[in-house]
Design brief:
The protein is an alpha+beta fold. The protein folds into 2 domains: about 1-40; about 45-110, Alpha-Beta Plaits (2-Layer Sandwich), CATH 3.30.70. It contains 3 helices and 3 strands.
């Protein structure tokens, strides 16, 4: 067995403190504001807070909004369901907005 001399009693606690210190640094880096690698909950914004996207439908429930979004995706239009402060909104890019409204209007006429 190796002889550590008079410092052998301190070896275990020093290793433990170093391990805990590394964990503390890792967790501080992981949960730091603005630099976190952990995904945050999306914040709800107004309809105007979604950049280039344009509202094509404002259904009362998220279920209806998802059905409408899925209808547009099946028709080949890139659509997004956005949880805004005014309620759920189905949004598309402006170049596809007219076609999206027509498709959704046809879907309403079938019911």
């Amino acid at each position: 067995m190796q002889d550590w001399g008079s410092f052998s009693y301190a070896f275990g606690p020093v290793v433990a403190f170093v391990a805990v210190g590394l964990l503390v640094l890792l967790l501080r880096w992981t949960y730091a504001r603005g630099k976190s690698v952990v995904e945050r909950r999306p914040e709800r914004g107004g309809e105007q807070d979604y950049g280039l996207l344009e509202v094509v439908a404002a259904p009362p429930t998220f279920v209806e909004a998802e059905v409408q979004r899925r209808t547009l995706v099946d028709a080949g239009i890139r659509a997004t369901l956005a949880p805004t402060t005014e309620g759920p909104r189905v949004m598309v890019f402006p170049t596809e907005a007219g076609l999206a409204r027509q498709i959704l209007a046809q879907g309403r006429g079938k019911s």
